[in-house]
Amino acid sequence: MTAQEVDLTVDLCGIRLTTPVLAASGCFGFGREMAGWVDLAALGGIVTKSVSLEPRRGRPTPRTAETPSGMLNAIGLQNPGVEAFCAGDLRFLAEAGATVVASLVGRSPGEFARLAARLDGEPGVALVELNLSCPNVEHRGEVFAADPAAAAEVVRVVKAATGTPVLAKLTADVTDLVAVARAVVDAGADGLTLINTLLGMAVDVRRRRPRLAAVTGGLSGPAIRPVAVRCVWQVAQALPGVPIVGTGGVVSGADAAEFLLVGATAVAVGTANFINPQAVVEVADGLERYLADAGAASPAELPALFKAER
Amino acid sequence: MTPVRELCEVLDRRRTGAYQALTLVAPRIAEAARPGQFLHLLAGEDRSLPLRRPFSIHRVERPAEGGGSGGSGTVEVVFDVVGAGTLALSRLRPHDLVDVLGPLGRAFAPPGLPAGCVLVGGGYGTAPLSFLAAELLARRCRVDLVIGAATAARLLDPDQAGRLGHSLTVTTDDGSAGRRGLVTDPLPDLLARTGAGRVYACGPMPMLAAVSRVAAAAGVPCQVAVEEQMACGTGICFSCVLPVGGGAGPGPSGTRMVRSCLEGPVFDGTAIAWAELGYPELEPAR
């Protein structure tokens, strides 16, 4: 099979994506920044940086620290608020023809619902992703995905507020991820995004201080890919048929294939965008070559090619 | 212009005092680069330290101006070996390849008409001043330089700096070269003596705060190039932010956190909310 014969199109929660490779939330700004580097309309989709009801200023600096095969960040959800987002970046993305997944973050289920209602019917928004799992928040209680009931409550009120398909983004920093995933799916989530950054910490031993101003932050990059692949595998086994966007350390087409083989419908490229502004495009191109070599006509054929027994 | 990603061949890598200078063949970047902008470098195959390293542009040679390498423009950066990433860059050899994004960020704005310009650099923060001095001289500006460092060894090529403009003042914290003291010590006198219309500065944040303060007190417009810790360099990670005043931002007294890779690295010295960074507020000339 040649790359020309491969069809990268996938269906994610009823939305047709031209490729299964998206830009991950928090790793592609609000999309507009990247218009000079890639054709935004040609990407599988752009998951925006999370937006909240009111503007957020974010954390003090330093906000990032490089770590082995990855990085820590504690940006603190800096964003201009949903109204400025709708009037500025979202309008730009819609006019550019991008497939937008709007990432939402709130401090309560009601805030998530108001955000979802505000974006319902906004041109260009194909899906919403609920950031239930950002580790860079003031209180652990804001990490809704740490608790099945809290996560499910957010999904339930959001689903009542919007007709747009809803992805729930979960964290691997829990004892029983499958229980959280099952709870949000039962509450109406159309799909899952797995995983958010892992809570981490690094110390400057010379100065004997934390390397991040916020002390702790989220670990991303290839360092977390095995954890992310394990999470997708476990949840896909437990909840067959639930669409999953796999994310965590995808840098190449082969990395994307890893997630698709174990049951993801799509992948999102995160930290790699910080190093290579054309990473999303290059991952999709690499995946296309991988599929051709594997004799698979589409990404959806990959799970059947996976042999769980070694 | 829109920055580009260019795979650049190493033309030369050499020591310059305590620092390293790296010259890259970069025709498209050299053509577009302006003083104050920066390059974001990725070298080698080892991705265990995955991020790029940002450096301000020290010098540019363009073939149209009789420079460059075999008809191709070149760019030069200066860096200090401070960790594994810069150590790897210091081991580059001619013909090695470096993946470069650039030119990134906003450049220094030259005066509209020829004017006296005082350029202030601290440590290897002096690097972009070479490129800037060349542009200002081409615009028939008077250029006076003040460079400083902790010790004589940490000055960036003072011999070359002496040839960049009309005068050079050197300061070191320990007096091992030039005047003992800080770059700001000779500044008020130099501004008064030359009737300078512009101050341009690059170096560590405490120095930029102090230079902005002296310039504001003298009523001279001042632009500073900051060196914030950065991941992407393209505006998507929101690491390199600093508070900028004015407007209706969500911060104390209406400041906004802006990305220095996009809205900087060059800022008007009066725009930065110094007090939020722990420095005294500027006191404008009366």
Task: Write a structural description.
The complex is a heterodimer of chains A (310) and B (286). With 310 residues, chain A is α/β, with parallel strands linked by helices. Chain A has helices at residues 82-96, 109-119, 148-161, 177-186, 225-238, 253-261, 272-275, 279-294, 302-305; strands at residues 10-12, 15-17, 21-23, 45-47, 64-67, 70-73, 100-104, 125-131, 166-170, 191-194, 198-201, 203-204, 209-210, 216-220, 244-247, 266-269. Chain A is 31% helix and 20% strand. In chain A, the strands form four sheets. An eight-stranded parallel barrel of chain A has the order 3-4-7-8-9-10-15-16, surrounded by seven helices. In chain A, strands 5-6-14-11 form a four-stranded antiparallel beta sheet, with no helix packed on it. A two-stranded antiparallel sheet of chain A has the order 1-2. Chain A starts with 9 loop residues before the first strand and ends in a 5-residue tail after the last helix. The mean pLDDT of chain A is 96. Chain B has 286 residues and is α/β, with parallel strands linked by helices. Chain B folds into two domains: 4-104, Translation factors (Elongation Factor Tu (Ef-tu), domain 3, Beta Barrel), CATH 2.40.30; 116-227 and 265-277, Nucleotide-binding domain of ferredoxin-NADP reductase (FNR) module (Rossmann fold, 3-Layer(aba) Sandwich), CATH 3.40.50.80. Chain B contains six helices and 15 strands. Chain B has helices at residues 27-32, 84-89, 127-138, 158-161, 187-194, 205-218, and strands at 4-16, 19-25, 38-43, 53-61, 74-79, 97-104, 116-122, 142-149, 167-172, 179-180, 198-202, 222-225, 241-244, 256-259, 266-268. In chain B, strand 8, helix 4 and strand 9 (167-172) form a beta-alpha-beta unit. The longest helix of chain B is centred in the last third of the chain and has 14 residues, at 205-218. The model of chain B has no long low-confidence stretch (mean pLDDT 93). The chains are: A alpha/beta (310), B alpha/beta (286). The interface between A and B is medium-sized, with 36 and 30 residues.
